[in-house]
Amino acid sequence: MARKFFSEITINPRDEWVFRGNEIHQEEILKYFRANLKEDSDGVYIKNVFGELEENGYIESNGYPLHIVRVSEEGGTLFFSTDADLTLELDDVQLFTDPSENLILQKKDESKIFYRLNSNAGGQLSEWIFENGDCFEIHHHNEKMKILEIQNTKVEIPKQFRNLN
């Protein structure tokens, strides 16, 4: 069983990874964190495995820990490339706008981890975005996907760790 703890890492509203008040700048560390970001019923955590030992370091997020950095079409499918070296297909995601009108994405099998589209990815996706009455949709071939509105993407520290810091 994994050891669970609050990692003392927070994602601030500018999407910066912060540890104990100091922004993390080391790209290799950030790449590792992004690639190992997971979720469960308690919250969002960075999964670390050391041989047979496993630990889940939970984070607090007031921004977006992951980003879509490229949108492309290949073989009739839309792909979203992330800064976690992950490629997602349109059929596996849902798109949203948040109260600040950021275009964000979430994998359909997740409920707490969100990806914000950077400006380049938003521009690349724009050729498939259409206004339909009072909402926006993705139109790709014969498929239409409504871009939903979401009010809260904040991820809090799990309850069992809130009074420890």
Provide a brief overview of the structure:
The protein has helices spanning 27-35, 119-125, and strands at 3-11, 17-19, 22-23, 37-39, 44-50, 53-61, 66-74, 77-82, 87-89, 93-97, 103-107, 115-117, 129-132, 135-140, 143-149. By secondary structure, it is mostly beta strands.
If you had to describe this structure to a student in words, what would you say it looks like?
The protein has two domains: 3-63 and 154-161, duf1285 like domain (duf1285 like fold, Roll), CATH 3.10.540.10; 66-149. It is built from two helices and 15 strands. It has helices at 27-35, 119-125, and strands at 3-11, 17-19, 22-23, 37-39, 44-50, 53-61, 66-74, 77-82, 87-89, 93-97, 103-107, 115-117, 129-132, 135-140, 143-149. The protein is elongated, with a radius of gyration of 17 Å. The two termini are 24 Å apart. The model has no long low-confidence stretch (mean pLDDT 95).
List keywords for this structure.
49% strand, six-stranded mixed sheet, 165 residues, 15 strands, nine-stranded mixed sheet, 2 domains, 2 helices, mainly beta, duf1285 like fold
Strand segment tally = 15
How many strands, which pairing sense, and closed or not: the largest β-sheet?
9 strands, mixed
Please tell me the total number of domains: 2
Give unreliable regions as ranges: none
Sheet/helix structural class: mainly beta
Compute the average pLDDT.
95
Question: What spatial order of strands do you see in the largest sheet?
Answer: 9-8-7-12-11-10-15-14-13
End-to-end span in angstroms?
A: 24 Å
Q: Helices and strands, in N-to-C order?
A: EEEHEEEEEEEEEHEEE
Helix content: under 10%
Count up the helices: 2
Beta-strand percent range: over 45%
Taking all Cα atoms into account, the compactness measure Rg is: 17 Å
Give the overall silhouette.
elongated
